[in-house]
Every structure is written in C-alpha cells, then in structure tokens.
Automatic annotation (TrEMBL):
Top-level taxonomic group: Eukaryota
Name recorded for this polypeptide: Transposase
InterPro entries recorded: RNaseH_sf
Single annotated GO MF: nucleic acid binding
Provenance organism: Rotaria magnacalcarata
Phylogenetic placement of the source organism: Eukaryota, Metazoa, Spiralia, Gnathifera, Rotifera
Length: 150
C-alpha cells in the first residue's frame, strides 16, 4: 500500500543495514549551464552536473568567473560594460566582487527550444551536455544582439 511503504521486521538486529537505512536522494541530478552574453558575443560556457539544489559560490568562482573574465578581456577590454545581477545567491558570494548579467530568461528559452527541437530527448546527462554545446555553437550572434537591446 502506498501509505504504508516502510520496512517491517520481527528481528531488526538481523536486518541488513542497507534495508534498514535506505538513503533517498533529496535533489534530482541537474545539468548546469552558465555563460556570459553581450551584443558582441557569447562566452565559452561552463556545463557541469550537480546533485545539489543549484550552483554554489565556490563553483561560480572556480569555474564560471575565469570564463567571465576571459570574455570581458576579449570583448570589453575598454571596460564599457554593465553587470546586471539576478537573484542567484552565487552572484553575491563574499569571495568575489563581480555579478552576472541577466537576460530576462529569453536566451535560456531560446536555447531550450534549440536543444529540444523536434521532440529530442536525452537518455544520459552526457548526451544532454553534448547537445547543449552543439546548439550553443549554432546560435546566431544577431539574435543575441537583439536580445541585448530588449
């Protein structure tokens, strides 16, 4: 019965540990995609996986910020840019002083449309990661420039 899904035993001393204490995953595994965009281009993305709720400040500082700084040096060496913070806690970590630009979710929606076009579905995390990378390479810079103006 669904409401009675526990384990019952007349002798708990002889019950195997893996039966008594079956662990349950709190969060589903996720594929994280981070990138910077501007009217001049798209950064090299960070694509990784996590079992936790979201990206944390350590991952942001170690994996994302180096890509952001390289992007700024390449496309905005004149220091003519503005960071637009969203509400992600990693953007407000005490161990860095940069914030990430928000794009009103338009870019995320367009990327998802490209990734799942035609009913495509991933059967593994690696398939999804490869598909995201493939579709990001196909993005038209004119679309990104238009989004930046909105």
């Amino acid at each position: 019965m669904p409401g009675n899904a526990g384990f019952y035993s007349s002798n708990t001393a002889n019950t195997p540990w893996n039966v008594k204490f079956k662990s349950k995953q709190k969060f589903e595994p996720k594929v994280l995609v981070w990138l910077a965009l501007s009217s001049k281009g798209i950064s090299v993305p960070y694509i990784g996986t996590t079992d936790g709720p979201a990206i944390d400040s350590n991952l942001y500082v170690q994996k994302c910020l180096p890509k952001l700084l390289a992007f700024i040096r390449r496309y905005h060496a004149d220091n003519n840019y503005i960071f637009w913070p969203d509400l992600a806690s990693s953007h407000y970590a005490k161990n860095h002083h940069y914030m990430a630009k928000s794009t009103k979710y338009t870019f995320c929606a367009k990327t998802a449309d490209k990734v799942y076009h035609g009913g495509w579905l991933a059967t593994t995390e690696q398939q999804l990661i490869n598909r995201i990378k493939q579709q990001l390479k196909k993005f038209d810079l004119k679309i990104v420039q238009t989004m930046m103006l909105e």
